[in-house]
Specification:
Layout: H1 14-24, H2 35-42, E1 45-46, H3 50-53, H4 55-58, H5 73-81, E2 85-90, E3 94-99, H6 100-117, H7 119-124, H8 129-142, E4 149-150, H9 151-160, H10 168-180, E5 184-186, E6 195-198, H11 199-202, H12 210-225, H13 230-237, H14 241-248, E7 254-258, E8 261-265, E9 279-282, H15 287-290, E10 317-321, E11 324-333, E12 337-344, H16 350-367, E13 371-375
Parallel strand pairs: 12-13
Antiparallel strand pairs: 1-3, 2-3, 4-6, 5-6, 7-8, 9-10, 10-11, 11-12
Helix pairs in contact: 6-12, 8-10, 12-14
């Protein structure tokens, strides 16, 4: 594994960037004592797929059960059930799980830009500003008093209030708009279903100025995900480049150069012991992948040309080799075992296969299964 080297104004070897990021994100190195600490460090955990998204904080947390390599799903569920984090639409207009005390800050930083990006769909679905505003008011009112509504219940309430056709994609757009307007956020799950709760009843009060919010978000991003580029940050947070640049002033971030690009970080490079390959099985929207759209070439494993990586992977969840994408996986729980199917863009060496098996076994333990069936497949 490459050892991170280089300082301000010097070139940094690409493989070292992945190792540095893995330590910044706490995927490697010292883990957090609890999933809540992991959530606070990352700020926002991308959560389109609700159950798999729990793996992101778990992998960055100390094991809390016998035989586990990292935090349990039960420990993550406890944080969610306590209402310490909420799953809502923020930043790029997609699902994120966010500590409640950070949600107002993130919305202050990015909601205007995300709402602006939704305008084409507003027109396509015939949603006027007045109708969106009315639906947002209705949703805030019907969730008041601690009422947590399922999607179907929210749809019924909107229809009763005279909002036209609150179903399907149109309904999701109305709900997302209300989330971004700080009217609702996720509530307690009901019968395994997502619910919506009143924002002000669930999220600590306190206005946040937009410039202060962007500055706080920039510090969180580069502390937890550095080294990363300015464009990585602006795309992750849906910000204007000028606003993001202004936020960097005075943060005291280190600047590093790689392939003519400037990357920023907030800490010294980690000390990494020389060891064999490391394989991590992460969810498909793990922050090791989704935080770096501008420097995506540094996310893909250097041993395989970018053209070899498929646009549509065979499985959604990702296999990281030394912190960089090399393939995908799918887990199917059975009665006594976990079936783990893997696909890689190239074959593995014997040492890499051994690391793959160790990574798969950590996943087996997280699923709570005593046995594992591991299927190996790769591009020939």
């Amino acid at each position: 594994m490459a050892t991170p080297t280089g300082r301000t104004g010097t070139d940094l070897e690409p493989g070292a960037v992945a190792a540095w990021r893995a330590h910044s994100q706490r995927l490697w190195g010292e883990r957090f004592a609890t999933p809540m600490e992991a959530f606070k460090h990352l700020g926002a955990v991308q959560s389109q797929e609700y159950q798999p998204s729990k793996l992101t904080p778990a992998m960055r947390t100390e094991p809390d059960g016998e035989g586990l390599a990292f935090g349990s799903v039960e420990a993550v569920d406890a944080v969610i059930d306590q209402g310490a984090v909420v799953r809502t639409h923020v930043l790029r207009g997609t699902w994120h799980t966010v500590p409640v005390e950070d949600l107002r800050m993130m919305l202050a930083a990015s909601s205007d830009r995300v709402l602006q990006s939704m305008n084409p769909n507003n027109r396509n679905w015939g949603l006027s500003a007045a109708e969106l505003g009315r639906a947002t008011e209705v949703l805030a009112a019907v969730t008041a008093g601690g009422r947590h509504l399922t999607r179907d219940e929210a749809s019924e309430a909107l229809a009763t209030a005279g909002i036209a056709d609150p179903r399907g994609s149109r309904l999701m757009h109305l709900l997302m708009h209300a989330e971004l307007r700080s009217a609702i956020c996720s509530g307690n799950p009901k019968g395994g279903k997502q619910t919506y709760a009143n924002f002000d009843e669930r999220v600590p009060a306190g206005p946040v100025a937009q410039d202060e919010a962007i500055r706080a978000l920039a510090l969180r991003f580069f502390t937890s995900r550095g080294p990363a580029t300015l464009k990585d940050f602006t795309r992750w947070a849906t910000l204007k480049v000028t606003d993001a640049k202004a936020a960097l002033d005075g943060l005291g971030l280190e600047e590093l150069q790689i392939d003519g690009r400037t990357l920023y970080c907030s800490a010294e490079p980690p000390e990494i012991e020389e060891r064999g390959p490391v394989v991590d099985f992460v969810q498909g929207f793990d922050e090791m992948l989704c935080s770096y759209t501008d420097s995506k070439d540094l996310v893909l494993h250097h041993s395989v040309p970018r053209t070899r990586f498929p646009n549509r992977p065979k499985f959604n969840s990702a296999i990281l080799l030394d912190g960089r994408l090399i393939g995908n996986w799918k887990a199917t729980p059975k009665r006594e075992s976990l079936l783990i199917e893997t696909w890689r863009v190239r074959g593995f060496t014997a040492a890499e296969i051994a690391a793959l098996r160790r990574g798969a076994d950590r996943l087996r333990a997280w699923f709570g299964k005593p046995e594992m069936e591991l299927v190996l497949d790769h591009e020939h």
